[in-house]
Amino acid sequence: MDDKNQHLEDLQEFRAIYVSERRNQIRTALDLRKSNGDGGMWGQQLKALQEIIEAVDRAIADEQDAEPSVYEKRGLRTID
Questions:
Q1: For the chain, what percentages of helix, strand and coil (3-state, to nearest 5) are there?
Q2: Reported pTM
Q3: How far is CA 50 from CA 14, 17, 35, 69, in A?
Q4: How much is the average pLDDT of 6-14?
Q5: What is the distance between the alpha carbons of residues 78 and 76, in angstroms, rounded to a whole number?
Q6: Which of 19-23, 25-29, 62-66: highest mean pLDDT?
Q7: Among candidate residues 22, 40, 24, the one with its CA nearest the CA of residue 32
C-alpha cells in the first residue's frame, strides 16, 4: 500500500473513532435525560466533536484531491 492510501485509511479510521464517541455521548445524554432529567448540558461537547469530525472530513477530501487521477497514473494526462 502506498503512503497516500495509508494516510487516507488512517484519516477514515480516526474519523470513525470520533463518530463513535459522538454517538456514545448522545446516547449517554438521552439516557440521563430519561432517568433523571439531566443530560441537557452536552451540547458544547457535541459541538466540539462535530467540529473535529468536520475537520477530519476536510482532511480526507484534501488527501483524495492530492491523489493522481486514473488518467494521471497511466500517463495519459500530466499533472500540472
A1: 80, 0, 20
A2: 0.74
A3: 13, 12, 26, 30
A4: 95
A5: 7
A6: 19-23
A7: 40
